[in-house]
Amino acid sequence: MAATATVAWLPAAILLFVAQVACEYGMVRVVSEMGGPKGKDYCILYNPQWAHLPHDLSKASLLQLRDWTASMLCSPSDLPAKGFSNQIPLVTRGNCTFYEKVRLAQGSGAHGLLIVSKETLVPPGGNKTQYEEIGIPVALVSHKDMVDIFKSFGRAVRAALYAPNEPLLDYNMVIIFIMAVGTVALGGYWAGSRDVRKRYMKHKRDDGPEKQEDEAVDVTPIMTCVFMVMCCSMLVLLYYFYDHLVYMIIGIFCLASSTGLYSCLSPLVQRLPFGKCRVRDNNLPYFHKRPQVRMLLLALFCVAVSVVWSIFRNEDQWAWILQDALGIAFCLYMLKTIRLPTFKACTLLLLLLFIYDVFFVFITPFLTKSGNSIMVEVATGPMDSATHEKLPMVLKVPRLNTSPLALCDRPFSLLGFGDILVPGLLVAYCHRFDIQVQSSRIYFVACTIAYGIGLLVTFMALALMQRGQPALLYLVPCTLMTSGALALWRRELGMFWTGSGFAVNTSLL
């Protein structure tokens, strides 16, 4: 039945692919004829079927950019008296087809055409006969960029159209790899050691339960199923009501990340030799516990960091650093707080999220009117969003190369928190089991290495397919199969599956 469904979808997928108008991102380099500020690149969307753009800027002609946006350029009467000889005219989108505009421009001597759009950029389409007739490039540029061009460089400007090749992978992937693997390794190690140490101290001293805030939450099968329903529901709601819910998600992130940052920094602050004095006796909420002054200052610092990020979150130059720091703290806090008690629970959670990730990335494009993946659309922010806000539940690093894709569409590379947390919970379980069976952390190291390999495979798939990838498609098999195979090889699969056989070895804590 699954094979029949696949065959049924295949023609639809092929038709969808063929029906799409060929389009590529390019750049227009603008310089002032009067000197002044150095040139600047702006994003354009062009159709290579009209005419190809050179990949190298040195091979692109630097021509006069003429502002003709007062005209739609739909009839010969819209042309200037002396034409557009050796110029690139800027005209307004609308009232006629792209072909009619570019045919008039080419007939009057233009060497290119830029169509200014106040709406979302779409590829300038035509038919085969029209493509063969036209020999100059035609591209769309946003109205916002046009305003910036004349504001920054004045009216006397020159422009060159070009489309440099996209690199297979950006160097920022190295930064994302280090952050992701480092967070998984540190979070798994911290969670495993903390959990076993707490159990050991309770076993040794039998001094009652720990404080509530120190306890981990064991995930049950029912909790896993409820969590999956919540994930699916929230993703669909975000897809349809993004502008209404995005601020709620931002608020939740601020609260959770400041809590996570406090949890990560408090062990370090408690080692400081000063600030140990406590608040006086009082009846105020929380303060009646007489917290130390240094812990109050730490809490204020964590809240301040979160507030600063929320105010400046759309500053592309540096706000991503704060977001990544808060995101890593949040992931470490979640890895410490949420505990999968058995490999069986790990397998159930990872397989369900594996199906969830694949479905919402690869299957939903066939179910949506736009043909876009729900997961990618929500993660990157809908193109038609009125707020232009982005969800903060990702690690993001700006692209380090100068390419049209970085300039136009995706200036950042992203990795969702789920791609860190979900395998990280398995890594934490492996570390706890290592200590239980006194295995010198072989499960922990093997699972961490498997996560790194899975992440590298994800990056390779991203480079080859040039589209968003469900990272769990590669991470789940790598980590689950490695952990299970290692347990089978060591003849500990039964204990590993049920999490039984607790033994304390304080030298490993």
Count of individual helical segments: 16
What is the succession of H and E elements?
HEEEEHEHEHEHEHHHHEHHEHEHHHH
**Cα-to-Cα separation, first versus last residue:** 51 Å
Strand fraction band? 5-15%
Which structural class fits the helix and strand makeup? alpha/beta
Helix content: 40-55%
Shape: elongated
Enumerate the strands of the largest sheet in spatial order, edge to edge or round the barrel. 1-2-6-5-4-3-7
Please count the beta strands (DSSP E, at least 2 residues each): 11
Low-pLDDT segments, ≥5 res: 1-22, 206-213, 502-509
How does the major sheet shape up? 7 strands, mixed, barrel
- Roughly what is the average pLDDT, rounded to an integer? 81
Cα radius of gyration in angstroms: 28 Å
Structural features, described:
By secondary structure, this protein is α/β, with parallel strands linked by helices. Helices cover 52% and strands 11% of the residues. The protein contains 16 helices and 11 strands. The strands form 3 sheets. It has a 7-stranded mixed β-barrel. It has a two-stranded parallel sheet with strand order 8-9. A two-stranded antiparallel ribbon has the order 10-11. The longest helix has 34 residues. The relative contact order is 0.11. The N terminus and C terminus are likely disordered.
Layout of SSEs?
Elements: H1 2-19, E1 24-32, E2 40-46, E3 63-67, E4 87-92, H2 98-107, E5 113-117, H3 128-133, E6 138-142, H4 143-153, E7 157-162, H5 172-205, E8 217-218, H6 221-240, H7 242-269, H8 293-311, H9 319-337, E9 338-339, H10 343-363, H11 374-380, E10 394-398, H12 404-408, E11 412-416, H13 418-437, H14 442-465, H15 472-489, H16 493-498
Parallel strand pairs: 3-4, 4-5, 5-6, 8-9
Antiparallel strand pairs: 1-2, 1-7, 2-6, 3-7, 10-11
